Structure formats: structure tokens, C-alpha cells
Amino acid sequence: MEWMLNPELWIAFGTLLLLEVVLGIDNIVFISILAGRLPSHQQQRARVIGLSLALITRLLLLASLSWVIGLTAPLFTALGQEISGRDLILLLGGLFLLGKATYEIHEQLEGAEHATTRKAVSFASVIVQILILDVVFSLDSVITAIGMVDELGIMIAAVVVAMGIMLVSAKAISEFVNRHPTVKMLALSFLLLIGGSLIAEGLDQHIPKGYVYGPIAFSILVEFLNLRARAKRAKQPVHLHPTYVKNDEARSAD
User: Fold this and answer.
1) Residue 205 region by backbone torsions, left for phi larger than 0, else alpha for psi between -120 and 50, else beta
2) Burial status of residue 205 (CB atoms within 10 A of its CB: 0-12, 13-18, 19 or more)
3) Do both 63 and 175 map to the same domain?
4) Is the same domain home to 202 and 214?
5) CA distance 186 to 180
6) Which residues contact 118 (CB under 8 A, 6 or more apart)?
7) Which of these, 49, 125, 44, 142, lies nearest to 90 by C-alpha position?
8) Structural domains of the chain, count
């Protein structure tokens, strides 16, 4: 029980928990967009299964730390660039995320005009897509955790608590994203940015997390202010110019 009285471990746990929640937002956004393509009665189930798979994937990776660390060893060299197992996973995951986000943006921009050409998505296909990105996000999350904390128990506790927070908030975030088209487009743009950063990481071009999440946080703040301003305008009564009122009264008299 000595660890409970150790402030350094609590600081490490709090820092890692915060980081896991921030990294987990990517998961929630991606799952929200994919689940939104399903019938309403299946969406909550898809979100719960998706986040549960993410938790299981993270715990399995933490349970095999030696294998995860081994992924950073070079496998081959291409064009003067050493490629490891981790690099391959990040590259493929980044390309998948770019392709999926681009497709979803295309669907949003086309709108109802091309609704008849859309294919119905199955529950299983959505879960498979969620699982693919869960592996990529989980690998990034676990490697970050390994670099920050030495205690396996702290890593597992932070991951479990962070995933619990995401499970509780996933429905509210998903409904908010799907209810506001501009927020959904912004979220898809975030996925493009994250996909690009994953590809850069896979090519050993390290991008500090602040450079990625800083612009995302600023964009969220601006969009929040836009939503507040729009809601405020909607509540204000419409005042017609006196000329319009007189013309309307004249037409009524005729």
C-alpha cells in the first residue's frame, strides 16, 4: 500500500490519465461518425462495443510490453528509411484514416442529392472499421504510456479509468457531433489532421502532440463560440421594418 502514499506515482497517474483521455477523443470522434451511419437503435451498441474493444486492445498491448517495445526495432530499409513494425502499423492506419475521413467528407458535401447511391452499411462492417483504428490508436497510446511511466499497474489503471470516462461521455459527444453538421465536418477535418500525423510518425518525422491538438483545441473553441452566437440569434425576436408592416397591412386590406 506504500504506492498510495507516493505523490510522484499519483502525479504520474494523473498526467497519464489526462493524456489517455485526450488521445481517446480521437477514438470517440471516429466511432461517433461511423456509428452515426447505422440505424438509431444500433448506434449506442456500436459505441459501447467499439470502446470496449479499444480497452481490450490497450490491455492486451500492455500485457505484452516486450512485444510492443520490439515493434520499434527496424524490419527493413526503404529509400534510406528504416521501417519498423510500429511504423508499418502507423502508416497503414494513417492512410486508412485519411481515406475514411475523405470519403465521409465527400458524403457530407454531396448531401441528399446522391443519397440514392449510398450503400447501406452493416453493423459488422462498422465494428471491423472501428477495430482497425482501435489497434492504431491503442498502439500510439500504449507506447506513449510506456515512455511516461515505468509502473505497469499505473498504466493499466490510467487506461481503464480513461476508457470509463469515454464510455460515459461517448453518447453525449456522438449526439452533439451528429446534431451539428458544422461540428461533424470539423471532426472529420481533425481526423484528416490526425491521419497525416500518424503517417509522419510512421516515417519517423515526430510531430509534437501540442502542434496537433493545439489547433484542434482552438478550432473547437471558435466553433463553440459560433454555436453560442447562432443560438443567441435564434432566440432574438425578429423586428420587421415599419415599411414592411405597412405594406403587409395594405395587402391584407385588399
Assistant:
1) beta
2) exposed
3) yes
4) no
5) 10
6) 107
7) 142
8) 2
**Cell 458524403 appears where?**
107
Compute the half-sphere exposure of residue 202: CA atoms within 13 Å on the CB side of its CA.
21
Cβ–Cβ < 8 Å for 23, 140:
yes
- Note whether 8 and 130 are same-domain residues: yes
Amino acid at 121: V
Q: Which helix (H) or strand (E) holds 47?
A: helix 40-63
What are the pLDDT digits (tens) for 99-124? 888 888 887 777 645 544 455 678 88
Residue with cell 490497450: 58
Is the pTM higher than 0.85? The answer reads no
Task: Let me know whether 167 and 237 are in one domain.
Answer: no
**Model confidence pLDDT, tens digit, residues 166-191:** 888 888 888 887 787 787 788 788 88
Domain containing 38 equals: 2-207
Q: 179: which 3 cell numbers?
A: 446534431
The amino acid that residue 133 corresponds to is L
Residues 6+ apart with CB under 8 A from 213: 22
Reading the block at residue 189, the C-alpha cell is 477535418
- Report residue 245's pLDDT band, with 50, 70 and 90 as the boundaries: very low
* C-alpha span between 195 and 42 (Å, rounded): 27
Tell me, yes or no, whether 139 and 250 share the same domain: no
